[in-house]
């Protein structure tokens, strides 16, 4: 009996860990984070938006870098339709110096990002959303209740962009929302690099 109870507690722990952060259908809180141009950006700044493509990413992860052009393409296609991209750098700049604010500015200028690229150095919103990889994408739909999570996961299923018939999850999700439908796929596994977390101080 004790073994059964112990196993149940383990499974509950695993389930709780897997469900950390927002789930599809949840309403998100707004943020107010510094963009590479020095200005603070919130979801509320996009008054005409129908929703948002929020991408937790960074400068240094090879997978995140491989997706930068695709993130840019998503913004160019969907921002005019009401779904702008907002990218958020998840990584602690001490643990990952290549993800400092100055390096973010350099990357944004080098790649001519057309979307906001924000820093979250204390991981406040990274944790609220439950992002675990770079990149990790959340599609939000603006509703009368608030900004509702409609999709969570990968941008597509082809990191190397070699398969012409790849599943373009984010694009499909946004197109469904624009057509007044719920996405047929709402959750996929985010694939990329682990987030570089701020080290906790051991001093009291």
Write the layout of secondary structure elements.
Layout: H1 2-18, E1 33-34, E2 40-41, E3 51-57, H2 62-66, H3 68-78, E4 85-89, H4 101-111, E5 116-119, H5 124-129, E6 133-134, E7 136-142, E8 147-153, H6 169-178, E9 193-194
Parallel strand pairs: 3-4, 4-5
Antiparallel strand pairs: 1-2, 3-7, 6-9, 7-8
Structure notes:
The protein is an alpha/beta fold and 204 residues long. It has one domain (22-194): Glutaredoxin (3-Layer(aba) Sandwich), CATH 3.40.30.10. Helices cover 29% and strands 19% of the residues. It is built from 6 helices and 9 strands; from the N terminus they run H-E-E-E-H-H-E-H-E-H-E-E-E-H-E. It has a 5-stranded mixed sheet, with helices on one face. A two-stranded antiparallel sheet has the order 1-2. It is globular, with a radius of gyration of 18 Å.
């Amino acid at each position: 009996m004790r073994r059964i109870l112990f196993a149940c507690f383990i499974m509950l722990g695993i389930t709780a860990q897997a469900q950390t952060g927002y789930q599809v259908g949840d309403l998100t809180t707004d943020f107010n984070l510094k963009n590479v141009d020095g200005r603070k950006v919130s979801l509320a700044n996009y008054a005409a938006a129908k929703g948002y493509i929020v991408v937790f990413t960074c400068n240094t992860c090879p997978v995140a870098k491989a997706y930068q052009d695709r993130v840019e393409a998503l913004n160019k296609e969907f921002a005019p339709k009401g779904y702008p991209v907002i990218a958020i750098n998840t990584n602690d700049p001490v643990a990952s110096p290549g993800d400092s604010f100055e390096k973010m500015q350099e990357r944004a200028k080098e790649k001519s990002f057309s979307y906001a690229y924000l820093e979250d150095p204390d991981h406040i919103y990274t944790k609220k959303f439950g992002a675990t990889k770079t990149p990790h994408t959340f599609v939000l739909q603006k509703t009368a209740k608030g900004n509702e999570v409609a999709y969570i996961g990968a941008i597509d299923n082809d990191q190397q962009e070699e398969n012409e018939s790849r599943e373009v999850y984010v694009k499909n999700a946004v197109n469904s929302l624009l057509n007044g439908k719920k996405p047929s796929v709402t959750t996929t596994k985010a694939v990329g690099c682990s987030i570089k977390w701020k080290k906790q101080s051991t001093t009291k």
